[in-house]
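Predict the structure of DUF2628 domain-containing protein.
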Amino acid sequence: MEQNPYAATATPVSTPTGTQIDTLDVSDRWKQYFKGLQKYGGLEGQLFKAIPKGPERLAAAKEMAPPMSAFLLAFVFGFFYYLVKGMWKKGLVLALMTFMGLTVVVTVLYLIGGETLAGGARYLGGVAFGIMAPRDFYSFKVLGDKGWLPVRPF
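Done. Here is the predicted structure for DUF2628 domain-containing protein.
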């Protein structure tokens, strides 16, 4: 029986430890965010999802909270924030994806008579950059992902 060359490998991917995160050239707040993500299962957050609702889950969510400045700067500057952080490939693809998505949303809103909503839709691109920036920065710095794909599994 032939083996599938496209099948996932059985060897686990090694994840960096806390000491490797400490050596990164980022601020202490970013290191705290990276360690919190790592502690609770990385980008997928499998260990976080297993925590029952209550004070423990709230404490874990605080550990995993990204710096607010990352959201605000990415919201305002979009692609240029990604460019400064060295993630220009992801920023370019995300900019193209948001442009195409917003074009469709605005067109549909104009067709159904929602001109006011269409005017407010311009902020959705900034929201997309703001939400994706911390996750992309984690995958860029900690996991070493320098690819083009900005959208990762949630």
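Residues 8-13 have pLDDT under 50 and may be disordered.
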